[in-house]
Amino acid sequence: MFRKVPGYCFGKYKFNANIINKVSTLLKIKPSLANEDINFFGDVRLLDSQNKLIGVFACEEARKKADKLGQDLIMINQEIKPALCKVCDYSDELASKFMNDIVKIKEQQKLNDQHFKLSHTITMQDLKLKVNQAKDLIKKQNNLRVTIVCPIETAIQAKSILYTLKDLCQSFMIPIGDVKTKDYKEKEQFDKKKEQQEQVQLDIEFEAIEKTELNLDLAQIKIERLINQYYSRSLQEKTEDEQDLADFFRVQQTEKDKKVETKETKKTKLEELMEDDELDFQLQDVSTNNQSCFLRDGNLSKYVKLYKMIEWSQRRK
């Protein structure tokens, strides 16, 4: 259930209670009481939007100061003395945190995961075309990783290609560190008889000289749509995690039940021998714990075998 939070009439964004609760859930923070919802009658320490102390005022006076500034009064912590309040545009502050702490980081991670791959046999003409592609790509993201996978014998040639690329791209991006080399293992091939050639992977990372910032200044309808998308995605991920956990415990329980069932149904060698149709016998003297048997068919070898099993069973006890 969403906690009831009022809408805010100040600032650029004017989020309703539903959006504020969704943003707070995504940011993993508790929605703050604000404006008329603050039922507090003591003194409060008042901070401005830059978290600088304005002074200590009665709560009603602090509310009037917020009204004069055309901003919201939000309660940060009323458990301390004096309580802590802040004057700010609450919806704008939540929107800024959402864009910087969630959207910006997610988008940057998505872009950074993209690899710019080159062949170790690339020609100079094709390399120049790749430079133009890298220039377009670096405008969308601040970092770019270039990768070459090649046989170990051509590693020096591949390294030379990366250094050439670095020289050709120095006008719009600069390398972060030097070329890194590591062993590369291909996925298992269908033809296992075919010998896999020993390969290495060479990587070099670049960063843009002129970094582009993600556009955080969105219209209210767009940012609300973005909040709803991220919130729905988080609920879906949570449901999938819960399902995976439930499946895991179900498998564990099934395996446990199988073990118990196997333990219950598992019979001793003596019991298996006793149920054997070829061994026709009867046990007696149970009260004295002396076990003897009578064979109807008079087969001595079967009797000896059974007698040994009885001895083995008694020793186990």
UniProtKB/TrEMBL annotation:
UniProt-listed GO biological process terms: ribosome disassembly
Species, as recorded: Paramecium tetraurelia
Name under which the protein is recorded: Translation initiation factor 3 N-terminal domain-containing protein
Molecular function GO labels: ribosome binding; translation initiation factor activity
Ranges where the Translation initiation factor 3 N-terminal domain occurs: 35-93
InterPro entries: T_IF-3_N_sf, Translation_initiation_fac_3, Translation_initiation_fac_3_N
